[in-house]
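LOG
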Amino acid sequence: MNKVKIDKLTKKVVKECEKQKRILAVAESCTGGMLCSHITSISGSSKIFDRGFITYSNDAKIDLINVKKKTLEKFGAVSKETAIEMVEGTIKNSLASLAISITGVAGPDGGTSVNPVGTVYIAVMIDDKSDIKKFNFPDKGREFIRKATVYEALLFLLYKLKK
């Protein structure tokens, strides 16, 4: 995924949020702030962006956005259950009416038989309704997976905004 495509998509998301008077908050794990960085690189994003949580560790997920320790123990950090709790906690701990969470395995290490490298869950919450998508990106390196995740997160946000 190239930077130009991501930047164009980011501008569309920011513009649509502004049009709908939506406030956005983000929780990121495997992308480590990359989505927040793209959003805040857009002039005018301060009108729509409240905060970002970089919850790379399980402790951060628990402490910052109320992911239950039990959920992490039972399902793991890379799971639909964790992604949903992340997005719910992001809404609860922000001023946002729209939130997105990302959790996954960017590699090159950390993959398992259940969640190989490239497994990513993205959850969106808008007007108290959540939706989740699972992605299995090809293992073309850590940077590829992180950029592909940001691109898909932006597409998912735009889709939910226009629905």
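LOG (cont.) second protein
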Amino acid sequence: MNQQITFLSDGDDKLPKLISYLNPDTQYLLDWFYITMRIRIILIKQMVRGLGRKYQQIQEDSLKQIKRIKCYLWHGNVFMVLELIDLVIDILEIVQLDDKASKEFNKLLKIVRELESYISNNESYIPNY
């Protein structure tokens, strides 16, 4: 009854309420695995590279910022993570205004926006891993 319990979760918004109902002293954390899977979608599938040669510098900058995001997330610095995600979104939106964006590009922008939403919704559950 008095034992401290830590739950690792994928970020489902219903879980913290359930956990606090079961045991108010329970700690709830976002599992690192689920965070990195969202970042891997961007990096491993190389969606950023789908922008084409015309935007090579933007590709490199975006990839660099995404790698920095992962580092800041590992250390629990959510403020910097959200700042960098906003920067990446701004960069991608400039490209979108400049040129008719491909389906892959629009998909990338959507995924980065979803990452921003996911991190901001779960920021209080992201520790310094």
